[in-house]
Write a structure and sequence with these properties.
- By secondary structure, the chain is α/β, with parallel strands linked by helices.
- The chain has a domain at 2-183 and 218-246 and 288-303: Rossmann fold.
- It has eleven helices and 13 strands.
- The strands form four sheets. The protein has a seven-stranded parallel β-sheet with strand order 3-2-1-4-5-6-11, sandwiched between helices. A two-stranded parallel sheet has the order 7-10.
- Strand 5 (114-119), helix 5 (146-167) and strand 6 form a beta-alpha-beta unit.
- Helix 4 (89-110) runs parallel beside helix 5, helix 6 (191-200) runs parallel beside helix 8 (251-262) and helix 8 crosses helix 11.
- The radius of gyration is 19 Å and the shape is globular.
- The structure holds uridine-5'-diphosphate.
- Residues 82, 121, 178, 189-191, 194, 206-208, 213, 215, 251, 283 line the site of uridine-5'-diphosphate.
- Uridine-5'-diphosphate (UDP) binds next to helix 6 and strand 8.
Length: 327
């Protein structure tokens, strides 16, 4: 396939590009480097099947040309990371809403299938033990900017499904649950790279709130394999899929496990949410996916335990720290 990846210099996008190239596909990446980095794709530049364009998806003439020469579009360009979202809500809303609108509009003109990377964040404050694709979304008030991310992504989903129903544009929606792996940066708040970096540098490990909140972490390699498999089956069109892991951990236990695996002397420090994200911040207490739907369709199966994922990322971060690369 000839794939266009928006946000392809980001953490997940660069892994997707790598995997598609490994399978012999052609890949073009467009990225404005707002949160992505050329570092993430520099090892791909030698591949004759790889092209990249440093530009914004808001540059509609460039986007139109790239969509035209692609056969499929993986739309991953988005505002990412709770820290960024809380600090820059206008950018979050505009990037997510206008960006997706443009991608869908261009793809519809050329009838190019589009896979949209949405997020588990759309489930919001739901107290369900496991989130299922057909569940209600339970968002907090608009006065709390965190929820603008979920609302903007939910709008992306509505829009994508509307393009499918009204214009027959093949779309696939994936809700990603806390993806982790090498090259993820802790700069925008993501907990795993932050804890590993703190532990490796013997700095305090900052557990926000009580640390009793839970998350399920998914290996980036599993995520990109799932995205490709979904794009390759016509049965995924017009559907929403959770992409995640059943194993769940509290954030406090994650800190303890990271500390043990890195053999770090770092103290574990509880930091109130208002200190981390400002007054009135609301966290999601639990977030675990029901992955039955994607399992049934493509035989998706998470390949690694949390410890295995952490060990791989720790090894990668040790190399990066030694080579002076900032995480
Ligand atoms: N978190 C933490 N310490 C950090 C960064 C994050 O305790 O340095 C917590 C955060 O409050 C949340 C969880 O870890 O409960 C996962 O945070 P992340 O930003 O990685 O993803 P989220 O699931 O919130 O989108």
């Amino acid at each position: 396939m000839r794939a266009l990846i928006t946000g392809g210099a980001g953490f997940i996008g660069s892994h997707l590009a790598e995997e598609l190239l490994r399978r012999g596909h052609w890949v073009t990446v467009i990225d404005d480097l707002s949160t992505g980095s050329v570092e993430n794709i520099k090892h791909l530049k030698q591949d004759a099947h790889f092209h990249y364009v440093i530009d914004s998806i808001f540059n509609s003439s460039v986007l139109a040309e790239l969509v035209d020469s692609a056969e499929t579009v993986f739309h991953l360009a988005a505002a990412v990371g709770v820290k960024l979202i809380v600090e820059c809500p206008i950018r979050t809303i505009e990037t997510n809403v206008k960006g997706t609108e443009l991608v869908l509009e261009m793809a519809a003109k050329k009838k190019r299938p589009v896979l949209i990377a949405s997020t588990s964040e759309v489930y919001g404050k739901s107290s369900k033990e496991r989130f299922c694709e057909s569940d209600d979304l339970v968002l907090g008030p608009t006065s709390k900017s965190r929820w603008s991310y979920a609302a903007s992504k939910a709008l992306d989903e509505f829009l994508a499904l509307a393009y499918w129903h009204e214009k027959n544009l093949p779309v696939i929606i994936t809700r990603l649950f806390n993806t982790v792996g090498p090259r993820q940066t802790g700069r925008y708040g993501m907990v795993v790279p932050r804890f590993i970096q703190q532990a490796l540098q013997n700095q305090p490990m900052t557990v926000y709130g009580s640390g009793e909140q839970t998350r399920s972490f998914t290996w980036v390699g599993d995520v990109v394999e799932a995205l490709i498999a979904l794009m390759e089956t016509s049965h995924a069109v017009g559907e929403i899929f959770n992409v995640g892991h059943r194993e769940t951990t509290t954030i406090l236990d994650l800190a303890k496990l990271t500390k043990r695996l890195t053999q770090s002397d770092s103290p574990i420090q509880l930091v109130p949410y208002e200190e981390a994200y400002g007054a009135g911040f609301e966290d999601m207490l639990h977030r675990v996916p029901d992955i039955t739907k994607i399992e049934k369709l493509i035989g998706y199966k998470p390949s690694k335990t949390l410890s295995e994922m952490l060990e791989r990322i720790i090894a990668d971060q040790r190399i990066r720290i030694e080579s002076g690369w900032s995480c």
